[in-house]
Amino acid sequence: AVTERALAHLATRAGAGERVPHVVRLPTLPYGHSPHHLFAAALTLSARTLGLVLDEILDSLAATGHRRVLVVNGHGGN
Predict the structure, then answer these.
(1) What is the rounded distance in angstroms from the CA atom of residue 36 to the CA atom of residue 23?
(2) Above 80 in pLDDT, residue 54?
(3) What is the pLDDT of residue 44?
(4) Rounded CA gap, 56 and 53, in Å?
(5) How far apart are CA 62 and CA 38, in angstroms?
(6) Consecutive H or E run containing 10
């Protein structure tokens, strides 16, 4: 999961995030929806909870004037 987060972060950094000063890049979420990983210490959010977290983040961005958002998923399980 750490590798996937790092790759997603680097992909956004290599894109417009470094060339366009008004682009806001948020930190990656350290949790996702991966109930198929059933080994010790594998943390997962329910699909509902992950959806609510994303809704809250997007609502907050919209409330502060952001109108265009790109969500990058760095892990196939989500």
Answers:
(1) 34
(2) yes
(3) 86
(4) 5
(5) 36
(6) helix 2-12
What is the distance of C-alpha 60 from the center of its chain?
A: 14
One-letter amino acid at 2 equals V
Asked if residue 78 lies in contact with residue 8, where contact means CB atoms within 8 angstroms, the answer is no
For residues 65 and 54, give the distance between their C-alpha atoms in angstroms, rounded to a whole number: 17
Could you report the per-residue pLDDT of 6-50, keeping only the tens digit for each?
777 777 766 655 566 677 778 888 888 888 877 777 788 999 999
Mean pLDDT of 50-72: 92
Question: CB neighbours of 49 closer than 8 A, spacing ≥ 6?
Answer: none
- What is the spatial distance between Cα 71 and Cα 43, in angstroms, rounded to a whole number? 21
Nearest-angstrom CA–CA distance, 4 and 77 = 11
Element (DSSP H or E) covering residue 58:
helix 47-63
